[in-house]
Structures
1.
Amino acid sequence: MKRPPVRRLVALLAVMTLAFGAIFVRLTVLQVSQAASFRDRAWAQRVRTVQLPAARGQILDRGGEPLAISLEARDVYADPRYVQDPWATATELAPLLDRPVAELAGLLTRGTTFVYLARQVDRDRAERIEGLGLPGIGFLETSRRYYPAGTLAAQVLGFVGIDGEGLSGLEAGFEDLLAGVPGERTQELGPHGQPIVGGVDVERIPVAGSALVTTIDRDFQYQAEQALADAVAANGASGGTVIVMDPNTGDILAMASYPWFDPNDFEEAERGTYRNRAVTDAFEPGSTNKVITATAAVDRRAIALEQELSVPWQMRVGEFTIHDAHPHPTMPMTLGDIIAESSNIGTVMVARRLGESAMASYLSRFGLGRPTGIEFPGESSGILPPLYEWTDTSLATIAYGQGIAATPLQMTAVYATIANDGRWVQPRLVLGTRSADGTFEPAPSSPTRRAVSAETARTVTRMLAHAVNDGTGTNATIPGYEIAGKTGTARIPFPDRPGYYEGQYIASFIGFLPASDPQIVIAAILDRPATDYGGVAAAPLFQRIARYAITRLSIEPGRPLRPPPTAESQP
Amino acid sequence: MSLPAERVARPGTPEPSRGAGALRPPEGAEGAKRPPRSAAVPATPATTARRRRKHHVGFAILATVIVGSMVLAIVSLNALLAQQSFRIDETERQIDALATEQLELVHEQARLSAPGRIADWARRNGMRLPDDIRSLHTFGELQVAPAGAADTSAQEGSE
């Protein structure tokens, strides 16, 4: 019998030992030292987490009518690796995506694994594209913001970017509330993207955003905008602003700035139109600011109502000469006359009796120089120089509304304070929120503070009513109703250097009605009207909006007020 | 001195046999004579085998029935679960469709009720806002009950 070849067996044993040893070593490396790394790579390969977008909350008017809603939409993307015939695919997609064939073909031949072909495509079109069954074309669920009333309250509402994030207006200011909380779904997928049965499948359900219920009255807003657009056209103005406010609650019923834009196509609009100028832009209020001077004088008893001042038509203040709007002989005027005729010189004489400190104090009491606190992004504080920066002309010019700046909203709040018996009320744009289950959560009432006594406010109201009945504001009158208000014709300062534009004005009228029991405050402001004066350009705009307010809000006429003492009525 | 253990054959016990040989009687033994059929005789290895075969068949049938029933039950349960799953899927699809429809209706309602659209329609049809506001004043002490207020005069009269 032949003996086995021992050497060969030993050699074979050695080879096998080495081979198994190598395998053992490699296994140890793979399963011990590199195990965590490979486990992570495997997990990343087969586990996909997809974000589930949360439905964005609606923006509603005070009656629950939708001002902004979100519609279902889809993003269309391509994975060029799987597109079989880019040119044919582009030809089929071009009419549905409204993009040139060559542009789409360029995207479909890119050396990448993901490229957007179109964003926020509406559901119908997306389904038609899906029906084509084109390889390499995919869809992502998303939503599209839609503003059903187009340009209505555009600057107040703002708009939403392509990624669904609020970029302007209330959309940006209440982003956290409206956006909700997105969910996500984590799934373990096979090589072809199919879910692995029994694998990881975890879903975090998205939480829809709450609806924002604004104080805006949609129909009122529309009428105010129509009136503003017509007034801008009729007076050859470059723009304008309207604010309608409830003086008792601070609710803003309408807020419009012309020119406006369509938030559905905000990218096409001029960027300057995005601003809600009623809140973000300050202007020199001009004669509408005289109401603060008059209120301070009455409250401090700096001048008796019956007292007559001898008012010339011009006056030297420091290095400058100031004058009234029209030349007139030196004439006796009471405080009521000064407000009714909007005399700059008379106002300066009253302010000098008050003094700088008192004047600054009352400007502050009425909220000038600081934001009103309305919940709107980018609110301006206006410009109110601190007392130590006042020059020898500051008291005089500030008394009649030049040399300071306020937003239209700040000035509306000033008149609302007079209308509200001397209590300043913080304006507000939000009435409350409505959660996804329909529960309404009202916003807290607007903070208020006493600015002047009720008696002072009522006295000033009589002066303002006199200014409309027999002064510069006669174009604002409505038969049967007594309106209290004040005109303003303010010069426009250069933006980059001292001085004012020649022959360019901001015409304004701010007032409330009925004077005896104010229900509504309206500010009507026109930029650079060809008709110049507040009483000519802005008062009719106020009147048109006030007429609508009477019918819309069923405002009763009220009782006529006793006019303030005037020079003519004095014995 | 010890010896390795050996199996000791018991006297009178047959040597254990294996396979078919085990059923065969030993040659030359008395037991090889066939007993009369009618007589109650102890079971032979052949009858034992037949009985065993019958038992096997019975067991197989029983097992088949039991397993079959279990399989049927499992399949039925699965079918039931699948049916419920399909119903849930169908209901979810219906919910999605209704949610989409509701959103489309909200969209349509919002579009149709937009003030600009209504104002345009009204203008095309010759409607306009009133030019002036007229207030009607009543005189005297006449108190008018608001609309919808119950008329309690009859009740007062009857009491």
2.
Amino acid sequence: MPEPIIQIEDVRKRFGRVEALRGVNLDVSEGEVVVIVGPSGSGKTTLLRCINRLEEYEEGTIIVDGMALDNTSNINAIRCEIGMVFQSFNLFAHLTALQNLTLAQCIVRKRSREDAEKVARALLEKVGIPEKANAHPAQLSGGQQQRVAIARALAMNPKIMLFDEPTSALDPEMIKEVLDVMATLAKEGMTMVVVSHEMGFARAAADRVIFMDEGLIVEQATPHDFFQNPREERTRLFLSKIIHL
Amino acid sequence: MLASTLLDFTMEEQKKNARSRELSFVVGGEVSIRQDPWWWLVVAVAAIIGLLVILWPVPFREIVVFARDGILVTMVVTVASYFLIVIVGLLGGLGRISKNKLVFGIASLYVEVVRGIPLLVQLIGWYFASPVIIQKLGLWLNLQPLIEYRANPIITAIMAITVCYGAYMSEIVRSGIQSVPKGQMEAARSLGMSYFQAMRHVVLPQAFRVILPPMGNEFISLLKDSSLVSVVAVADLTRRGREFMSAHFNPIETWLMVALLYLVMTIVAARVVSYIEKRSKYERY
């Protein structure tokens, strides 16, 4: 069996007096789609942000694609391999959609402008908005912005994609267009770690669902087992609160 | 230099597909009276100067001719200082947001101390004190060129102004950088850019648009405050005016003309700032 592409070992992180992560262990294998759910303040976003070191952790080890994150010297090289999609999109506001996609390709991957634009246009096509190449972020709807943000991350040809509540800031009717793009990616075999409240997505696209609470992983299971017969009492309580039909 | 590369970077991008951006860029690329009626003020002041010079060559034409090298000195001191101020401000601003405590401490101390001392005092201090220090240093190191050092008024003045205004500019740059949402830096870093690449390509171009009005203000203040250099033997417009007045005893005409000359320079500068501002506008979230 090949080595997991992400190995998280006993990671701890505190914000002042609050312990955000209290010893998390998690392995993700190549091509796996992992969805992390949990109540707010459970540490899921913090964990995700530790995987590309946007957040420093005090203890533990994270190894991504064979490279230990604790070694600061090559953090930029590791980040190239990890695409990140944010809740608030964070598109570069002064650049067009196309330029958002080409900037890092040119200065980090050192691609020529022509090559970068070719990649960018193909990706905008893929996320379904090729006609918005020259639009600025402020001219796009939330769903379109998030799709550009996904394309921007993909333009670096990452091995892993991290999604931090990618649909939480969207109007309901725009959620689907973003989830569709994510589902396509999952089908293509991209390794994905997704923090989300979209249980429908978790059920349909995830290989594994992880439930976090109070800085710990409480339960992990296949979507079927997770939703049909959760083992832990805490998980059942959580599911009963969010699934209301 | 840094500011101009930022500007070049964004302008160049804008020109390339100007048509597709009509929505996002407020039309205002032309310098014309129709687009910016305040140019009429420039025309009016220039016309008054022209009329005075033509109708009463004595003394107005004489004043202008006498003071023209002073006008040039004022412009050189202002532009050269401003260029350096932007660089100092950029470094100071980055220092003021640095997580490195030493860098932050040095930048903050610089800003706090320099802001608290009047520009005139700093100018006189640099002019009279710095040569003595350099000469003493020369004696100590036994270096002949340092022992014989004499202060060059213009260079000393530019240095003093840069140190003083650099402190204010540092705070302007800091506020601009802090006005850019944190997520912009995070997104850039998550794509593998280094801190400085992210600053250069993502944060500063956005900060620059925010701080353009206060930066323009600084330029105009600087143009006027450059008259202070006349006390340290720099033959700028103000000093030449004073020399003319003492030779011809006509204070009213002299200072009217000097004031008009300053005014025409500052309002042209204001128009240029407003033009750049319009050019670089974009829709924000």
3.
Amino acid sequence: MKGIIGKKIGMTSVFSSDGKQTACTIIEAGPCVVTQVKTVESDGYNALQIAYGDKKEKHTLQAEKNHYAKANTSAKKFVKEFRDYSIAKALGEAITVEIFSEGEKVDVVGTSKGKGFQGVVKRHGFSGVGSQSHGQHDRQRAPGSLGNSSDASRVMKGMRMAGRMGGDRVKVKGLKVVKIFPEKNYILVTGNVPGHNGSIVYIQK
Amino acid sequence: MNAAVQFVHEQMTTKKTFPNFKAGDNVSVNYKIIEGGKERIQSFRGDVIKRQGTGATASFTVRKISDGVGVERTFPLYSPNIDSIELNKSGRVRRAKLYFQRERFGKSARIKEKRMAVESAK
């Protein structure tokens, strides 16, 4: 496994030489710093802890400062651990977008946009009543029956109902890396990525 | 537009120069068509009824009347298949999107030509 922390910038589209237009997402990823190297001997498993984005000193706890001092770096905002990192990196080393190459398939993890409290039609794709007549007064988007009558006498667990939607961790798999701009730390992937512009995403493979 | 999106657009699309056209103008779009491995150029002449989008996603729609039937084609502005765009006439219109043209035909569908002051006449 290899991965990097980044920020979603926005979307655009690119043209192939035969004129095909592909929607792409721009992600500003890294440079990240390795802040801890975990090994089987010391921690029971192999992993790399990497950090991204500077944090103001007044918001940093003393314990955090000491932790980052070990890697000889300033305090960071976002920390993520990747298990079994395929590239050997030492403490304090930088990770840039160049760990990925053009044409590679990657997974992108992010937090989807929050939609608030939504009904079953939007949240679970129920079809609603489908008709305005035949006794339907104001129930066009109602969920309908929740289950059986006396034979269960309760609503089954996991029954899909209205509620909070969005704001979940979402992984989008198999996005192709179109282009890498190492001097700007930009990485261009096909398709869309969960979350608002400016939200934190993890690119991994 | 976001500076980063602008940067990527400039890096990823080949620079092209087009005449400065807008809705109401009469243009000819010379479009490359690949047929059986051979490339040829087809011209589509009509009135621009809208321009929309910025950067790499910008597109425009051209409407023409072909054999009495209205035909509309939307082109991505930065498509590599667009060979060239010629500006034939610039029209005098009061709207940026000329969707009302879809309900019109014949005389009422004409767009008044904009008369430009010629530099040498001054």
4.
Amino acid sequence: MPGIRQHRTRCWGCGPVSHCEAGWGEEVSARDPRVPVSHRPARRPVAPCLGWAAAWTLACAGLLLGGALNIECSLAASARRIVSLNLCADQILLDLVARERIAGLSFLARDPTMSTNVEGARGIPAVQGSAEEVLALGPDLVLVGSYSTPATQSLLRRLGVRVAGIPMASSFEEIRAVVRQIAHETGDEAEGEALIVDFDRRLEAARAPRTENRPFALAYQVNSLASGPGSLLHEMIEAAGFRNLAADRTLGPGGRLPLESLVLDPPDLLIFANAPGDFRTVLGDNLRHPAVRYIAGHQASLHLPMPLWLCGTPRAVEAVERLAAARRDLGAGKRGP
Amino acid sequence: MRYVPALVWVGLAAAIGFAASLLVGPQGIGLPLGSDAALLVLFEIRLPRAALGFLIGGALGLAGAVLQGYLRNPLAEPGLMGVSGGAALGAVTAIHSGLAAAVPFALPLGGLLGGAAATFAVMVLAGELAGPLTLILAGVAVSSLAAALTSLALNLAPNPFAASEMLYWLMGSLTDRSLVHVWLASPLIVAGSFVLFSTGRALDALTLGEEAAENVGVDLGALRTRVIAGTALAVGAATAVAGAIGFVGLVVPHLLRASARHEPGRLLVPSFLGGAALVLLADVALRLVSPAGDLRLGVVTALIGAPFFLWLVLRTRRELGP
């Protein structure tokens, strides 16, 4: 529908303008205090754009003609065209800044097997990751993974684009640090702190006491991977009141637990951290193995979708909440300390 | 070594490999018995692994012996000729098209079709009386194309772990295979092996040359069909459930050739048993070296096979050289 497209584009062209209009943001975000302010534009309806197309166009034109200064009003110090090339930064960005300020997100942000916010990413240009695409979007800030695509990073820097390397967060403390860093880069420190406060509040509500007799849990993934200490999953499991079986078996953050060991000495809660359907070829075969299905039939088990733990973002708190709920269902551990 | 003692030795080695495969686990050596879980480990995890090791190793050794006899070329082998690569491509296509989930046996049949296409392509490219160099070049070309297309298929499907999966298909593995895989692969491997065993007498006649073979009643066209069909069935089904495992078909027939007095027909049974022994023992060895199981079976067979291959190339060059 070309008509809708056109209207949408026109409305977005006025993005900074609408952001300037007092009351617009507060009004919508006030409906759901749990959702950060920035989340609001993701659900910004297209309908007003259609209904008030003429009015919008007039308003835009008026503002553009009448006072270009107005457009700059609240955004003078902050980045206005932000591109993210990193799945984890994508998701934090969507929760942190107004949608109109995001010029592009990585294509992974639209993948429901990996991203927590597919809805939010819809409609924002998807970037595969080449410097050329990024330049075409005319960004004033580009977020990249610290250790990924060094060639693209250096090329963008040489061409004079402001590039911020965002490290991967694999603990709750690192999540807070990464949110603060991104908020600092985009110039939304207050919003960032609000996200962290919300994250900490939910985390503390979900956190279970570290009793002596905690049950064992294991985050079982494709290729028999099981995350040990040093991984976000480990911290989630421990926060929810479990002992991580992978830590008991001295596995590292990317450790592997042979299927046999799992069958002979299973955890009290088997967490399926990947869905077998996500991996149709061989890597997911361990999840479809009859022996694993047998264990799942005899022990408590839980499916924890990959987007919830793949990235260290404030939304990862939902994984702790789900694990804590499973912990309450399970009751006390069957094993001794 | 004489024929019968050699046959007994490889048979014994295969039996030891099979038993060891049942005995060795990540927690050390021993038969898990007693609880339900222990029986599950024995019958659902170790038995499928041992059975697949026996059948797949046997298929690869046998296919190597038949291809070397048929092409009268010591460098012929399913892995080097691109048959395993083609089969892997067929299997990946079957999985990503959704056929493997919808139709039973679509997975090994995909491997079969891919393997048959690759075998056929190499034979057409290299010709039936090709020198070693032409055969290897044709094999490299077909293998590379198959690997590239497999990689493309994995990348086109939304798959965050395409690189790891690629590694699996290039460097096969028996880790975490189940009885489901045994039921899928074994009928086709057994059928393919019967077809390959049936070529024995014709292969013996072929050592005298094509004309002489035709004079004693060998139908060359039918023989060619049987070689392609048997290889595709056995290697295709093997690769579809375990990925590409290289060099088994190269090493085993060579080690046993002298005992068979250089008669290709007599080499087939020992090559089947020898291939089974090699794969089973390599799979046990990698479990002892890396109990967590991230070492690939194809890595171990390549470690054994690649130096052997180099030695073979040097010897071939000396024989052909001025």
